[in-house]
Design goal:
CATH topology of the largest domain: Aminopeptidase
Strand content: 15-25%
CATH superfamily of the largest domain: Zn peptidases
Shape: globular
Number of helices: 13
Helix content: 25-40%
Cofactor: Zn(2+)
Oligomer: single chain
Structural class: alpha+beta
Number of strands: 16
Radius of gyration: 22 Å
Keywords: Hydrolase, Metal-binding, Zinc
GO molecular function: hydrolase activity, acting on carbon-nitrogen (but not peptide) bonds, in linear amidines; metal ion binding
InterPro entries: Amidase_Cbmase, Bact_exopeptidase_dim_dom, Peptidase_M20
CATH architecture of the largest domain: 3-Layer(aba) Sandwich
Family: Belongs to the peptidase M20 family.
């Protein structure tokens, strides 16, 4: 492989990622806990901001705690690069955080090499990407996709309102609609991320170039039954909320078979049972359903089938039903010119790369509605993500980060 004239400092990148992951580490599980607007999340952002200030970058933040660090001309549009540092509960060390660290490392390399961009480069660490409150708050704020109505009703799985979580951190949720970047202020967006799937590792390919991103529909379903004694209530006279949940869950493969594609995903990931007692028939089940596909038409077919089946299940079990849409992110085709440029650069530097869809949601898909966006993947060991076992090999990371660096130098010239 022909090495680029300018390349990243791998040890410096490792040190930066280790610094991020000093926040929210759980000794018992080996996972990381930096949910959006948690103390660990805020502390990590403040630490990252200090690192960028120490690099002599112009650092700023907005009303949702998006971090920005600008290098190059003080005026005019920018090339925005980065990812997020928040995590799911008990998440891994690389998801999001690696992309934020790679973006800063690439700017450090440019500065050291005396490469001054003609178009400013802005490193971004987006806020609340993992969807604790639904959606991707940070990038949606940048692109003006957050409405006051959504802010007012957004809540997490425990019922905490987004507005309350922000106010506890001294932030004003009413400012969100005014925090959008002006049209034309971001010339392009580029993100590096772990694949979070097994395709690259299984094929022995070090680089993935995502050309499209699955949409994400987040529904909250509530089955309302009757809590009752498990010993005295006959089986045929129960209104068992969990039995309804179980029947719907078992139907998921049939829904995908009938209405879906190879890119379809339906997941029930969070369940709350009430009263949640061994000797009581569950009177209420509240659960999440995350639905994904690369086709919006298929997503709507899947959703319609799922909701129809849920209604039928409720009727069979004597349950009330309530279905609430927490968020809807449409599938996105990423910018074809950026994808083609990344392919050419990979080939020029002897890197094997493959075009592929992204089954997971990323800031790049939100940014694509605002400016051309590109997304580079590096392999995930065993395809595992959102878990303490999440890992990517540093040899692969180095190749992906150097491709990212070359793309950034070229795009900002």
């Amino acid at each position: 492989m022909r090495r680029p004239a300018v390349k990243i400092d791998l040890q410096r990148l490792k040190t930066l990622l280790d610094g991020v992951n000093s926040f929210g580490f759980d000794d018992d599980t080996g996972g990381y806990n930096r949910p959006g607007f948690s103390k660990a999340d805020i502390d990590c952002r403040e630490w990252f901001a200090a690192q960028m200030e120490a690099d002599g970058l112009s650092v700023s933040t907005d009303c949702v705690m998006n971090l920005f660090a600008r290098y190059g001309p003080a005026e005019g549009p920018c090339i925005m690069v980065g990812s997020h540092t928040d995590t799911v509960v008990n998440g891994g060390a690389f998801d999001g955080s690696l992309g934020a660290c790679v973006a800063l490392e690439c700017v450090r390399c440019m500065k050291e090499a005396g490469i001054v961009p003609q178009t400013a480069v802005e490193v971004v660490v987006t806020s609340e990407e993992e969807g604790r409150f639904g959606g991707m708050l940070g990038s949606q704020t940048i692109t003006g996709q957050v409405t006051p109505d959504w802010v007012a009703q957004a809540s997490d799985a425990e019922g905490t309102l987004l507005s309350d979580a922000m106010r506890r951190r001294g932030l004003d949720p009413l400012e969100i609609p005014q925090a959008a970047r002006p049209p034309g202020s971001v010339k392009a967006f580029l993100e590096l991320h772990i694949e979070q799937g097994p395709v690259l590792e299984r094929s022995g390919t070090p680089i993935g170039i995502a050309d499209r991103v699955s949409g994400v529909c987040y529904l909250e379903v509530e089955f309302q039954g009757i809590a009752n004694h498990s010993g005295t209530t006959p089986m045929d006279l129960r209104s068992d909320a969990f039995a309804g949940l179980a029947e719907l869950a078992v139907a998921i493969p049939d829904i995908i078979r009938d209405k879906g594609t190879g890119q379809s995903r339906i997941t029930i990931g969070h369940v709350t049972l009430t009263p949640n007692h061994p000797h009581t028939v569950p009177g209420q089940a509240v659960f999440s359903i995350i639905l994904r596909d690369t086709s919006e038409e298929i997503m709507r077919l899947l959703r319609a089938d799922l909701e129809a089946r849920a209604t039928g299940v409720a009727a069979r079990h004597g349950l009330g039903i309530k279905i609430t849409e927490k968020s809807w992110l449409a599938p996105v085709m990423l910018d074809p010119d950026i994808a083609a440029r990344l392919e050419v650069l990979a080939q020029a530097h002897g890197l094997k790369a493959v075009r592929m869809p992204s089954g997971a949601g990323h800031d790049a898909q939100t940014m694509q509605a605002f400016c051309p966006a590109g997304l580079i993947f590096v392999p995930s060991r065993n395809g595992i993500s959102h878990a303490p076992e999440e890992h990517s090999d540093w040899e692969d990371i180095e190749q992906g980060a150097n491709l990212f660096l070359q793309a950034l130098i070229e795009m900002s010239a």
